[in-house]
Structures are given as C-alpha cells and as structure tokens.
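Hi W.,

Here's what went into the run:
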Amino acid sequence: MRFDVVTLFPDMFSVVRDLGVTGRAHGHGIWSLRAWNPREFTHDVHRTVDDRPYGGGPGMVMMAAPLEAAVGAAQADRGLQGLAAAPVILLSPTGRRYDQQAAGELAAGDGAIFICGRYEGVDQRFIDRCVTLELSLGDFVLSGGELAALAMIDAAVRLLPGVLNDGDSALQDSFNPALDGLLDSPHYTRPEVHEGVQVPAQLLSGHHAQIARWRREQSLELTARRRPELIARARADGRLTAADERFLAALPSETDVG
Ligand code: 9WO
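Here's what came out:
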C-alpha cells in the first residue's frame, strides 16, 4: 500500500508515518508514504502556489499548475514502482462522507494520492482535470485538508493485514460490536475501584457468556439512545438476534422519567 500526499506541509505526515500502530507498520514496510510539495513544482523566484480569486472576495486560491505538476510527479513515481495510476482524492467538506466502509475500500486498493488544499480553496480547473473523487470527514471546515487526509490514512492502514497485533485484531472480528454496526461497549481496566467507583460486576464474574451478553446489551442500549438509525439498519440487515430484540423491547424509552 502506498499513499502520496500533495501538501504545503509535508512535516504533518510524520504523525502517521512515525507514531503508533501506523508508524510500526510503516517501519515493517506494510505501507509507504511520499509527500509532494507543490512549492517544489513552481518556476518563479517566489515559488508562488496561490493567487487572488477571480471575481474578487477574501483570501487566496491555490493555483492549478503546481498542483497538477505534483500529481503528475506522484503518478510517474508510482509507475516506476510498478503501480497503476492511483485515484486522486481531494479532501473537502463538499465531498462524499468517509466512513468505515470507505476506509475498507481504500485499504483494499493499492493506495491513493491525497490533495490537501489550503487558503480559501483550489482552482476548479485542477479539480475538474485531475481529481477522481472528493471525500469529507463531516460538516466542518478545517484550515487545510491535511488533518482529514491523516485521519483517512490512519483508518485505512489499521485495516491492512499485519498492522494490528493479535490482541488488537480481535477488534476486527465480526462478533465484536465495535465493528458490527453498533457502538462499542464501555471499557475498564485496573484498579477495580477508582475514586470509589467499581468496575461493573459482570466484567469480574469470569463467565465468558455472561460478559459477552453484558457487553452486547451495553452496545445495544448505547446505540439505541445515541444512534437509533444504526439499530434500524442492524435490524434490516438481520444482525439482531431474538435476545437482542427482547432486550431492546424492555428498554425504557428516553422520554420516560425516572
Ligand atoms: C472549503 C469549503 C467550505 C465550504 C464549502 C466548500 C468548501 N470546500 C473547501 C475546500 O475544499 N477547502 C480547501 C481544503 C482549502 C481550505 C481548507 N480545506 C479544507 C478541507 N477545509 N476543510 C476541509 C475538510 C476536509 C474533509 N473533511 C472536512 C473538512
């Protein structure tokens, strides 16, 4: 898996490259990352990458030519490595929403070229000519696309085979509510009492089936309260058991007092 990022701030990507599980996987050669600074693809003495918007308005717009040259260099370098042309992904709040399924799709390919805009935006002619798809993390505006690209790379890389250790990889098992379309159940570790607050007795019981049932019910209750649409989807997909349905039916509705 190889990611390329076109960014005015290549140093930001040391976070995924050097730290944590993604850093360890990078060290093991499971994935690679190369940053391309559009400033290196300018020809004027000031190395200009932005200019004022036609039609007026505040701020500056990233020029098409340095971005296009950076993407061309990234694609050519991928070609030298024997890789096919990669999708070119622009991080933008107007893009398609990135979710766990999209992370899985990204992890199943052989990488992508992420375009990280800065200033007020990117010249539309670059988008029309070079960008394959636009992806968003949600309805908020960042100072640049880099933090969104970092989040997307992190979510995809941790799905690659060999990235998570044996302990972590249980999280990917379909029986675990974390990735079964329900919200995760709460976690506890030592000590058994923290500031007078006990770990739930079910987790100390040592009965595997009882612990699994408790976690499932915690997931169901949390999901029903915070993200009821996920319960509806799980039901439609046949992912709720008869025991799940009995538990949900017995839950007091949020409007009940007491
Ligand atoms: C900003 C913007 C704001 C309102 C409507 C559309 C918009 N598009 C962009 C945009 O593409 N901006 C560029 C990238 C340049 C300025 C910083 N950029 C950015 C990307 N801000 N926020 C994001 C982003 C990306 C993914 N998920 C959430 C936000």
